[in-house]
Amino acid sequence: MELEDFLAAAEELLTVPSTADRPEELKRAVEFVVDFVGLGFEVEWFESSGVPSALLHHGPARRDFRVVLNAHLDVVPATPTQFTPRREGDRLYARGAQDMKITALAQALAFRETAATLPYPLALQLVSDEEVGGRDGTGHQLEQGVTGEFVVIGEHSRLDIVADSKGLAHARLHATGHSGHGAYPWLGDNALLKLVRTVTRLTERYPVPAAEAWQTTINVARIETPNRAFNQIPAEAEAWLDIRFPTEDTDLAGADAGAITAHLAAFCEPGVTVAVDHVDAPHHADHDRPEIAHLRDAAREQGYGGAFLYKHGAGDGRFYSARGIPAVAFGVGGHGQHGPDEYAEISTIAPYHAALVSFLRRLAT
Length: 365
Fold this sequence. Notes:
Blueprint: H1 3-14, H2 23-37, E1 42-48, E2 51-57, E3 64-72, E4 86-88, E5 91-93, H3 97-114, E6 122-127, H4 138-143, E7 147-153, E8 161-165, E9 167-176, H5 191-205, E10 217-224, E11 236-245, H6 257-265, E12 272-280, E13 283-284, H7 290-301, E14 308-311, H8 317-321, E15 327-329, E16 334-335, E17 343-345, H9 349-363
Parallel strand pairs: 3-6, 3-7, 7-15, 8-14
Antiparallel strand pairs: 1-2, 2-6, 4-5, 5-17, 8-13, 9-11, 9-12, 10-11, 16-17
Helix pairs in contact: 1-3, 2-3, 3-9, 7-9
């Protein structure tokens, strides 16, 4: 890898404000990486709900692959200054530097260097909606028949291996009562109090951990009532719940929206109902798979531990895992994901690229 040439390309990609509300910039980011890969490869374009994505491979048209390298090129919103990359020592600051444009470009370089010479089919999957759920990128491509035997998601990991990520459920609690004058609360039925007591039961069952823990958590994202008067008893109230759960949670892992609705309803007072908007299953890949062993060995060749990481956020690996296809996250190092000081560690880029190339070639033998 010519690091300075790579960084120049990476900084150009980082200037693209590829947020969900800018579809033309999403397309520009995907096109940039396709152009970076260059000629000599098949490119299949996809679009769903206006979201562009691409699939690159070498040889005749196909949608089944031994390995898929998956990269998302969308980012969360940021101030304009965060789309002006800057280097400070070993850090390259910009929105998307850690999550995950630099890893995406390193995957594209590894694909360019190896895809034509490997004895198995390799794909580079470029998507642009992971930050808003991934259903129109990775999810859509899988619905169109794209598949693989093993998938490397380019999320940041500092050359460790993420084989486990939590599942996700978004739920709303709706409470009803009846209104009345606030001076006479015994004459009304306060919906907000019902909701608060229900939320209290849930958070007692799923308390906020004192430190990082591999357990189910509930974030109460919003509590609101349409009531706008001090002296009125609220007749309605609603709460939003963001629930994250590991494979080990036997109440939630493997449950569909109906089963999760029933589970949450057991915590509800009379007058409080549950609506589950959507559910994403946890992601898990067997730690003993030979591909994972090869990937860990390749990371160790570069002086990194290749340890197993457990991620609390959901990622596009869940779409593959739900179909029984093993997927892991493996990327460069950095810090500040989604924050004002997001950066990538420059010193991890070349080792990451070398480890990825080594892994792809190891599979050939």
